[in-house]
Amino acid sequence: MSETKTYDLVVIGSGAGGATLAQRLAASGKSILILERGEHLPVEAQNWDPKEVFIKERYKADEHWTDRKGKKFQPNIHYWVGGNTIFYGAALYRFRKRDFEQTQHYDGMVSPAWPISYDDLAAYYTEAETLWQVHGKRGSDPTDDADAPPYAYPPMKHDPEIQRVRTSLLAQGLQPFEMPIAVERNAANLQDSPCIRCRTCGGFPCLREAKSDGRKMVNRALDHANVELVTGAKVTALKTTANGKEISSIVYQSKDGPCEVRGDVVVLAAGAINSAALLLASKNDKHPQGLANGSDQVGRNYMFHTASASLSFALPKIHTDFPKTMAINDYYWGDPDGEFDFPMGHIQLLEYLDGDVLRGQLGGALPYWLIPKFLADAVGERLIPFLVMTEDLPEARNRVMLNDDGSIRLEYWHNNLVAHKRLLKRFHKVMHKAGRYCHCLEGHRAQIDGILPLYGTAHQCGTLRMGADAASSVVDANCKAHEIENLYVVDTSVFVSSAAVNPALTAIANSLRVADIIADQEF
């Protein structure tokens, strides 16, 4: 191994949480090292090529995990500087106030309370929305918290076809609202705007670098001479001191071989799945079940949302370029007509689905070459795609584990399906009343009733849950490990529940909060 160097802070992972924390602490003057297992994603024409991205899977990790039955699958995961935010759909929602409280769901299931409240994150949410350039309209979401300040950036405008759908929803008594979208857009001078509202946004790297992602946060951090970034650095183990109470060094594999560094403070931000896997892989005599795992909670309570893609189809062509501008939360806490008194979930528009995108997404059902491109293009031109999303609830049996060869195993059973099916049924009625659309296509290639399959890891969370009781959680309310004095976690693994909206903004806001805690208590 090379000579071991010591830093004030080592951050493992450069996605939403790790990159945001690094840029927040960069001005401290403390020595900061960011370890990223991926490289810089090349800016090239293929960034916006649907066939390259979705069929050839040019940027997807060449990695296979196993499910609870031992069957191998390729997760939809990407290892690059900036993490999965490079490919996300840029929808940045706040959790509701009630999402942080204990909530009763159907059939006796419970979404547990967090050890922090919405108020603990409120100011950080506002800062995160400005930092990540979130465009939205406060007050249009019927479940939004009225005391939140206006967005710093105006909402994205609806395409004409989306406006027609919105008009129909309003006529039915619903309250569709403007989605909070994180992009760099100059509405006052569109000719000078990085964001051009194109069809290659969610699922694609942005060729114009207009999407707010982890790369921008990393670059801001690197503007400071005290911050370093090492790419191609896959962390394989965290070593501890003899008493097992502190991380003594971080071992990573580079293109030049194994390397080792030390950090006075270590921040884990590799994503809910890989962060848990790393702690499990780092077991030693003092931590025989894995680091920080005296509670046997590391890896447990994995969540990734109970979600279905619901595709509204019309016979005439539908002209949309940037449909992902509208969402519905009228059913978030239950059916407003009183037919179901438990939380149902959230509905949002998805990105434009090009024929090659459809062929790639249907690859689990049919080889793409069996689906003629002209037919896929014709279908794509007639779709308005929605994501219908219900909170999946934490269960100890849903967990990240390691196989004997060190590879990842995801054991997962879907839950909260009654609420999800009711939400789908209500949404189908709404869209049928819109007059022009019928739901003849539903779901990704799925395991259960159109539910997003296990390889869909975009909304991964849980696995290193925060809590006051060390016997039932991994980190405390400050996201500091109960059993490791210099280890913090700032990705979605610390989430106690998944809510029913995209988790990224909550991870970003929480990373800002934890950065302030580290600055106050460690530096």
Write the layout of secondary structure elements.
Blueprint: E1 5-12, H1 16-25, E2 32-35, H2 50-55, E3 65-66, E4 72-73, E5 103-104, E6 110-111, H3 118-131, E7 134-135, H4 160-171, E8 177-178, E9 181-182, H5 214-222, E10 227-230, E11 234-240, E12 247-254, E13 257-268, H6 272-281, E14 306-313, E15 326-328, E16 346-349, H7 355-361, H8 373-380, E17 383-390, E18 399-402, E19 408-411, H9 417-433, E20 438-442, E21 487-489, H10 504-521
Family: Belongs to the GMC oxidoreductase family.
Domain Glucose-methanol-choline oxidoreductase N-terminal: 192-306
Pfam families: GMC_oxred_C, GMC_oxred_N, NAD_binding_8
Key features?
globular; 523 residues; 10 helices; 21% helix; 7-stranded mixed sheet; FAD/NAD(P)-binding domain; flavin adenine dinucleotide binding; 6-stranded antiparallel sheet; alpha+beta
Explain what this protein looks like in three dimensions.
This protein is of the alpha+beta class. The protein has one domain: FAD/NAD(P)-binding domain (3-Layer(bba) Sandwich), CATH 3.50.50.60. It has 10 helices and 21 strands. Strands 1, 2, 10, 11, 12, 13 and 21 form a 7-stranded mixed beta sheet that branches. Strands 8-15-16-17-14-20 form a 6-stranded antiparallel beta sheet, covered by helices on one side. Strands 3-4 form a two-stranded antiparallel sheet. The longest helix is centred in the C-terminal third of the chain and has 18 residues, at 504-521. It starts with a strand and ends with a helix. Residues 192-306 form the Glucose-methanol-choline oxidoreductase N-terminal domain. GO terms for molecular function: flavin adenine dinucleotide binding; oxidoreductase activity, acting on CH-OH group of donors.
